[in-house]
Each structure stands twice: as C-alpha cells, then as structure tokens.
C-alpha cells in the first residue's frame, strides 16, 4: 500500500518535472519551418506559423484562421488587421478565400519597399530576413534597452532615405506609408506594451531575426487587447517622427490586385 502510493507520488513528481524541464512543449512551441513549408516577408505571420497558431506549412490561410491566430497568439483584435488580411486574399494563386505565406510576397500588394528587415524587391529577396537591412532598427534608440514609437518613426525615416537612394524603382506613396506605419506600431504593441508603445529590444530582435516568440526570454502575450485606439496612438507618434517626405513624384497609391506578371492595380489616378 505504502509502496504503491509512493510509486504514484514518484510518478507524479517525475511527470511534473519532465513537464517543467520542457516548458512550452505543447502545440504552440516553436518549430522552424521544414521542407515544403512556406514563409512570408512578415515576421509576425511567420512567428504565428512557427508556433502553430497559423498552419505550420504556411498554407490555406483564410480570414477566420488569420483573425483567430492573431487573437490567440498576440491578442490583436480583428479590427486592426482585417483590411490587410482582405487585401492579401488578392495575392492568392489558388483560391478566393485563402492565401499562403508565399503568395503574400507579391510586391505592391501588402509587401512594400523600405521594409525594416527585408531588401527592396528590385534589389534582392523581398521576403527573407536580412541582417544588413535590420541594422538600422537594431541600432535605434541607443542608450536604453527598449524601442519606442519615436525610435520606430526614426527607423522608418532612415530606411526610406536608404531605399530612395539605392533603388530607383522604390514605390513610396500614402499606401506604403500606411502599411509601414501599421507594421511598426504592431511590432511595438505585440512585443512590448501596447499602452506605452515601448518594447524590449531583446524581444523585438528575436522576433525579427528568428520569427520566434521570445517566451523563454520572458515575453508574454499582451493582456491588454490590442485594438485600433491603442494602435492609432502609437502610429501618431511614428508618423510625426518619420517625417515622411511625401510620395515619389508621379507615383499614385496602388494595390496590386492579382498575382500575375501584369501590373493590374487599383488606386486613385
Ligand atoms: C492548400 O493550399 C495549396 C496551395 O498553397 C493548394 O494547392 C491546395 O489546394 C489547398 N488545399 C485546400 C484544401 O484548399
Ligand atoms: C523613446 O526613448 C527615447 C530614449 O529614452 C526618449 O528620448 C524618447 O522621448 C522616447 N519616445 C517616446 C515617444 O516616449
Ligand atoms: C535604375 O537602375 C538600374 C540598375 O542600376 C538601371 O539599369 C536603370 O537604367 C535605372 N532606371 C532608371 C529609370 O534610372
């Protein structure tokens, strides 16, 4: 009797210590993409796939799947990303209601020049992480261990300046400004505190460099729902500090509306 309950206790201890030894070994633990899995220019979506909130193969993503993943993974409310998700559907090569993370590499849809971590499409891979490009962000807000909305705006300013200098095909209109500013506000809100717009550099760097949620390092999903009010407050500061110089002369806001080679676009003329 004593023997068997001791055995049970020992088993329970062994079981719980094996759980403790492998924290996060659940269906949302990190797993790098394998053969046949596809990834995108967006670290936020890639991380959701690497943690199993999106399909790990990066395929067959519908609007409900994406809204659910963003909510469960980051506490992002649908209102913040619904438009981007709907626009992304136009990149799909195989369905009306689903896209893959590979589809959204399409330049001129959601993907844009002067990215924080990818090369411009005309200059190289527009979807793989690039440490040289990321240097601007990595060196920002010196002297403290966090990034914030004004450093994010400054990074946008510097990256655009670099892109305008190095790439004569750079597309820079209100549509890119809007997307880039939303993305900057999101890395701050998701990796940091959405009410202050401050995010630890360590977390943001892991997020961009590894497409990984820095759970082992202490990151936690925001308890505060990330909604439009909070995002707009962060964006306001980013927009101001990014000192956007206005569109490239003669360029109109555009959205590429199909994955073909043609430049089938819509926008005000
Ligand atoms: C899933 O996506 C792939 C393309 O990425 C497509 O070929 C396949 O038909 C899709 N499957 C379903 C069930 O929609
Ligand atoms: C961001 O951090 C820097 C460095 O501490 C600080 O000077 C700046 O005022 C901060 N910006 C905001 C919006 O808090
Ligand atoms: C843009 O740059 C490329 C490569 O440097 C060059 O071949 C091309 O002629 C340039 N186009 C314009 C319009 O200046």
Automatic annotation (TrEMBL):
Which residues are listed as membrane-spanning? none
Q: Which domain of life is it from?
A: Eukaryota
> Hey, what's the signal peptide range on this chain?
1-21
What cofactor is this protein dependent on? heme b
Q: Which UniProt keywords apply?
A: Heme, Iron, Metal-binding, Oxidoreductase, Peroxidase, Signal
The answer to keyword Oxidoreductase applying to this record is yes
Using the record's annotation, list all stretches that form the Heme haloperoxidase family profile domain.
26-233
Q: Provide a Gene Ontology MF annotation, just one.
A: peroxidase activity
The record, for InterPro entries, names: Chloroperoxidase (IPR000028), Chloroperoxidase-like_sf (IPR036851)
Q: Does the keyword Iron apply?
A: yes
Note the Pfam families from the entry. Answer: Peroxidase_2
Please give the PANTHER family that the UniProt record associates with this protein: PEROXIDASE STCC, STERIGMATOCYSTIN BIOSYNTHESIS PEROXIDASE STCC-RELATED
Q: Which family does it belong to?
A: Belongs to the chloroperoxidase family.
Q: Which protein are we looking at? A: Cloroperoxidase
Instruction: Give the species this sequence originates from.
Output: Cylindrobasidium torrendii FP15055 ss-10
